[in-house]
């Protein structure tokens, strides 16, 4: 992935904040979650360990993601992302604190509820999860022309 691809992908990820997360155990399931990302294009989301998708991840860490702008008209240039990756729950309070700061910047408004204090006090059961991408398919018709996408294996 060259610098131009990275810049466009970062811009796209910054312009959106929801992703569709697909899990399987053994049957498929999807959930919509707010995400944040880091420079390595790892994705982070917050969810209850009791949710269906979190249970699925405990049994099968392979996941798929779709991120797109649902307001894009059919006649407009398309941008979007499909991703395969490996999911895991973040362990340790220091790393959870660090990831929550990133997540709150991307999905603000829940800082008073979704925080380390409430997690430690068991006021909330939510935890931070990380998705490490193995394949990213980035759709960007403005950047890639008629073909419309590039596939990056990480």
């Amino acid at each position: 992935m060259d610098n131009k691809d990275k810049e466009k992908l970062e811009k796209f990820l910054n312009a959106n904040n929801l992703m569709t997360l697909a899990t399987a155990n053994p049957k498929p399931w999807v959930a919509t979650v707010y995400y944040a990302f880091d420079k390595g294009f790892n994705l982070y989301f917050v969810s209850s360990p009791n949710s269906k998708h979190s249970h699925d991840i405990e049994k099968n860490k392979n996941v798929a993601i779709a991120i797109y702008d649902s307001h894009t008209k059919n006649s407009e240039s398309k941008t979007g992302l499909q991703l395969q990756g490996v999911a895991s729950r973040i362990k340790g309070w220091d790393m959870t604190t660090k990831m929550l700061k990133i997540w709150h910047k991307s999905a603000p408004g829940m800082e008073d509820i979704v925080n380390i204090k409430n997690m430690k006090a068991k006021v909330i059961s939510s935890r931070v999860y990380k998705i490490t991408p193995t394949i990213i398919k980035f759709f960007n018709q403005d950047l890639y022309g008629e073909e419309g996408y590039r596939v990056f294996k990480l």
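The radius of gyration is 16 Å. The longest strand covers residues 127-140.
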